[in-house]
Here is the input.
Amino acid sequence: MLGRQDKAGIVCCSNGLADSARSAVMMLGNALEQLGFIPVFSRYLYAGSSVFDRTGRQRAGELMEFYRNPEIKALFDISGGDLANEVLTHLDFQVIRERLQQWRPGDVSRGWKSL
Here is the structure.
């Protein structure tokens, strides 16, 4: 169960966000803080000169760092889905499976139980 002061990872598994999204991401962080969470932002949220600046391996690596971090109790992917398939071959599904069992996923993530 999630509790106050739990850390929530914010990732971008697909297209990097435009620089213009920074204020919306800050609002998301503020909203999570008001709910009692501590947001932890991925290093790869924003696109540089292109949405292709970060490789699937880099985005997956960041996601896996969050899964491996025992302090992270929730994950939110705030990207679209155009480039998300690029991360699939770089994920450690055993680690994900173990973490999801610890998190006791609810209805929204029941599909992940098949991993």
The chain has three helices and three strands. The helical segments are 22-34, 56-68, 93-103. The CA atoms of residues 16 and 48 lie 8 Å apart.
